[in-house]
TrEMBL record:
This is DNA topoisomerase IV. It comes from Flavobacterium cauense R2A-7.
Length: 123
């Protein structure tokens, strides 16, 4: 019987917990993103200003415009796309932040299939 009374209290406490989101700390700076591609870890390093992101991945550097929708959401659009796939904008949403970086989800704008990743601030 006591367990029945504990359940609503635990549910209430869990619903009050909010993830930290200090997104303004990550609008600009130098970052590192490590992802699994075909079973191998690949590292991407990028530097972001208020409206530009320059990324180096696999020895190639590319740039994209950054348009902030809110403090925690922005859209990336490649400046020099080489094909139709690269012309598609990417929506990014910062989900949680820490003192080292942030966790985010991203997808092509209009695509429902979202992926997640974690970025570390290196400067």
């Amino acid at each position: 019987m006591k367990k029945i009374y504990l359940l609503p209290i635990l549910a209430l406490l869990a619903s009050c917990y909010n993830q930290e989101r200090n997104c303004k700390d990550y609008k600009t700076g130098k970052f590192e993103f490590i992802q699994d591609i075909d079973g191998q870890q690949k590292k991407s390093v990028f530097e972001r200003t208020e409206n530009l992101q320059i990324e180096t991945f696999n020895g190639k550097t590319d740039s994209a415009s950054v348009r902030w929708v809110s403090d925690c959401e922005f859209v990336l659009q490649k400046l020099h796309p080489k094909n139709m796939q690269e012309k598609k904008a990417i929506g990014m949403k910062i989900l949680t932040t820490s003192n080292k970086g942030y966790t985010f989800e991203y997808a092509f704008v209009g695509d429902a299939k979202k992926q997640r990743g974690t970025v570390t601030k290196i400067d």
